[in-house]
Amino acid sequence: MTDSNAWFDHAFADAPLMAILRGTGPERSAQLAETAWDLGIDSVEVTLQSPDDEVALREVVRRAAARGKTVGAGTIVTVEQVSVAAAAGASFVVSPGFDPAIVEAARVAGLPVLPGVATPGEVQQAYALGLRWMKAFPAEWLGTGWFRHLRGPFPDVRFVATGGLDAGNVSAFLDAGVRVAAVGSALEDPTQLARLAEVLHARRSAGRSVDA
Fold this sequence. Notes:
Elements: H1 4-11, E1 17-21, H2 26-39, E2 43-47, H3 51-67, E3 70-74, H4 79-88, E4 92-94, H5 100-109, E5 113-114, E6 116-117, H6 120-128, E7 133-136, H7 139-142, H8 144-150, E8 158-161, H9 170-175, E9 180-183, H10 190-211
Parallel strand pairs: 1-2, 1-9, 2-3, 3-4, 4-5, 6-7, 7-8, 8-9
Helix pairs in contact: 2-3, 4-5
């Protein structure tokens, strides 16, 4: 079985941003994925909520393979969807909430899993299962203070913040301790792309300075 924590440690080592593609169809999803990769966002999540989404996931996975990028399947709310994601070639799966059955199904399928959490209790349950990477959703509703408070009891948990994030607020969440901020509709707004690029450059430059 895949070591989920080690996999995400590697995949997100130099990746403060992730892209989420929701219900945009195969061709548009592929175009937005290319936009994200060109921008420097290495990881892309395609949500699985319809048969068309499965086609989109397969197409994005196909294009990702040529560029050495990772593609995850999101909005996984049933065990059956884990099998669909695996068959489509997803590298990891993401859930909006915490479900131990989905975590176990992902482990059996050999897929790293990001369970959704929104309370300290859910974080603790995921932690008890050995998970150290979790999706905090909905991040905009939780607010930056939530992450600052959770760093105290869970200093080794790495959060991927999802929900309502864009170029205007991702820096605030990253400053609050979020490891990765996920953006969606911002990729379709040309005015935000330059600002996202600035965030990526600044965060990666800061990381290199710390490592030096």
